Amino acid sequence: MLDPQSLKVNRLASALGAEIHAVNLASIDAEGATTITDLLCEHKVLFFPNQSLSVNEHVAFGAHFGELQGHPHKENPYTKHDKIFELAASSGGIADEWHSDITFRPRPALISILNMVKCPEIGGDTLWTNPELAFEELSAPLRDLCSGLTALHNAAPHGRPEVMTVHPVVRIHPVTGKRALFVNEHFTRRIVELSHEESDHLLGYLTRWIATPRFSLRYRWQAGTIAMWDNRCTQHKVLNDFNEERIIQRVTVMGDEPKGGDPRWEPFIRPGHASDTSRYDELLVQYFESIESKDLS
Ligand SMILES: [Fe+2]
């Protein structure tokens, strides 16, 4: 039983994030999970220090929030459990570009729950940002343009560029109704309705804008801390500034299909003969051919 009155909630930044004390996640029931879901909606990323959950406790905690999935492309170095994604790094090999998790899938991760098993004494902080604030603070014409666009995401950072999907550039959160920018530096390759050159400029601008420091939070880890974030309304990245071993384990709650406005324009693919610049449209052509062949089968 989790009494919401007994929880200690410390906000960490203006934009998002809270540390939660006086709770034992290993003994949470369904009602307690509802209280945590409410806190997550309010703060977007939650930190629970001093938990030190076992693998089974971690998975059981995650299962309160929906169906869990292991990572689709990566092998665990130490812990064999089909619902745990484990990453051990001493330098490099971490996601040091802004992203939300698994956006190359039609149903990207909804909630990610991370156990910091071992962290470096210096470095290896994680940053989160609030792409709802980033959307709100755009000018009205740019908000309007972005709301009518879609973007192609793929798993190129995992060596699987052929795994791709298209999502709205502005996503509406199904619980709060708030709109967030839903393109990211790590997995988003191209805005579908713009030319390659236009897409590069707009994507470059939006991904830099999302990373504005006042929309963000930087978290210094302690081993045993559990972090939990809503991928529908946050992005994150790890600072690649450490040399000691850093081991994380994560469970991922599978999400719904991102909903936003329908695209207001046709996909931009240069008509006619192949040219030097038409190679930039190849990924779009491949994507639309792949969904066409799925429709026929
Ligand atoms: Fe991530």
Describe what this molecule looks like in 3D:
The protein has 297 residues and is of the alpha+beta class. Strand 8 and strand 9 form a beta hairpin. It contains 6 helices and 16 strands. The chain is globular, with a radius of gyration of 20 Å. The protein binds fe (ii) ion. The site of fe (ii) ion (FE2) has 4 residues, from loops. The site of fe (ii) ion has 4 residues, from loops.
Distance from N terminus to C terminus (CA atoms, Å) equals 50 Å
Beta-strand percent range = 25-35%
Q: Ions, cofactors, ligands: which are bound?
A: fe (ii) ion
Shape: globular
Structural class by helix and strand composition? alpha+beta
Please give the share of residues in helix: 10-25%
Helix and strand pattern: EEHEHEEEEHHEEEEEHEEEEH
Number of strands: 16
Largest sheet: 8 strands, mixed
CA radius of gyration: 20 Å
What's the pLDDT, averaged over the residues?
92
Number of helices, where a helix is a run of at least 4 consecutive DSSP H or I residues: 6
Poorly predicted runs are: none
